[in-house]
Amino acid sequence: MRNIKLIIAYDGTGYHGFQEQRGSGLKTVQEVLEKSLSRLAGRSVRVIGAGRTDAGVHARGQVVNFDAAGWNIPLERVALAVNGLLPPDIAVLKAAEVEEGFHARFSSTAKTYCYTLYNSRVPSPFYHRYSLFVPRPLDLAAMQAAAGQLVGEHDFASFQAVGTPVKTTVRTLYNAEVGAEADLVRLIFRGNGFLYNMVRIMAGTLLEVGLGKRPSGEIAAILAARDRTRAGPTVPPRGLCLEEVEYGREGNRLDRAGRRY
What we know:
Elements: E1 3-10, H1 29-41, E2 47-49, E3 58-67, H2 75-83, E4 90-98, E5 108-119, E6 132-134, H3 140-148, E7 152-155, E8 170-181, E9 184-191, H4 198-210, H5 219-225, E10 240-247
Parallel strand pairs: 3-10, 5-6
Antiparallel strand pairs: 1-3, 1-4, 2-3, 5-9, 5-10, 7-8, 8-9
Helix pairs in contact: 3-4
């Protein structure tokens, strides 16, 4: 078996998430990608995705892999060939042949998500699809102080959507940053895994801190409560983007303070 890994980017606005939903009639990124790969392969191709991004969520670094048995397109031409069949809101950025045991989801060591806020007195039509408009001033220092309390291994039950059972709600967040460039405020989260809606709930909680609706020191109590009602709102999906998925030794990096994780 040949196993090919693709890094893809997409604007999730027009899709009902990444993962195919058979029989639903809803368009997904996976469905569109598989149709293009199947046309090139001359047979049915199924892909495995690293993350099941929700409806309206975007990606710059989604990773998929697929069984490429009988695939005869040279690796250096894969992106060009697939992109020729894809709509303009999905693109293959890179292709690589990986070992047979590689699994886009289960082999990953870390994922990075970014939530973008457009913080200005007036909205911008150019950022509407990719950010949440926030017209009031934000206390970025307070937001950064609150974000720092999320870093580490914690039970993130308070930051999980209700009614989504998992074996454990314990996750490790390696990094949580709040940065600003002009009117754009970016909330960046890097961790070993994320619960359903976890990033959007963390972003909603930090937004409330920035708006002065809750103190920055409240995060520890929210985590300890293990109660979804204690955290902030689930912000809209359009501001969320899957930035990167890491594998193997790529996960052993240094954070900005020089600490290895």
